[in-house]
Design brief:
alpha+beta, 7-stranded mixed beta sheet, 3 helices, globular, disordered N terminus
């Protein structure tokens, strides 16, 4: 009897540990759909509410380090999700976003979408897609670039009415949600691939 009770206690401990891992975003493959990212993470962040899974989306700027270095800081490998504060006066989509000493995120495409909450609230959003380029070895001053095989997808809610009351003042900063991933890691997303080859013409004429 005592041995059975000990086994039961051990089992309860394992279940509690698994539940803690799930609640902290650790110990499972976090690969949400776009609807889940927008409704369960980005919208609550903008409203000041806790997300569906605590700790699954971190606060860090993808332009602060090369993508592989950024993920390594948080014990991630193939992909990571990050909240970033943007200024209201800042351009929504710059062609080029430099990463000091590493390369640059270069804009590839933008698309619009919408998600609907359980209560029928329509949440309109945009997704700006960037590919990470690094200097070609031996390119010298010409700065020939090549794709490094990493993709940044930045999600922004474009209609503040879905998370802010009409009588509330507009904030100086707002949150966007960024997914950083290897270009071959398509997961549950609807669009595949990151694009390769050379950057689009004029990439180095727009800096942010």
């Amino acid at each position: 009897m005592e041995e059975e009770e000990a086994n039961l206690s051990a089992g309860d401990g394992e279940e509690e540990e698994e539940a803690a891992e799930r609640s902290s975003g650790v110990g499972f493959d976090f690969d949400p759909t776009e609807d889940e990212l927008v409704l369960h993470f980005l919208r609550p962040q903008l409203r000041g509410f806790p997300p569906r899974v605590a700790g699954a989306v971190l606060e860090a700027d993808p332009c602060g380090a090369a993508p592989w270095e950024l993920l390594a800081r948080y014990g991630l490998r193939e992909r990571g999700h990050f909240f970033v504060a943007r200024g209201r006066g800042r351009a929504r989509t710059a062609v080029r976003r430099a990463v000091a000493g590493a390369g640059a995120w270069i804009h590839s495409a933008t698309r619009l979408g919408q998600s609907v909450t359980d209560l029928g609230v329509v949440v309109r959003w945009s997704r700006a897609k960037f590919c990470f380029y690094v200097p070609q070895p031996g390119s010298g001053q010409g700065r020939q670039l090549r794709s490094a095989g990493w993709v940044l997808e930045e999600y922004q809610i474009t209609d503040p009415r879905c998370y802010r009351r009409a009588d509330e003042e507009e904030e100086d900063l707002y949150w966007v949600l960024c997914r950083v991933r290897r270009s071959g890691d398509h997961g549950r997303r609807t669009e595949a691939g990151a694009g390769a080859g050379t950057p689009p013409p004029g990439w180095n004429r727009v800096l942010e």
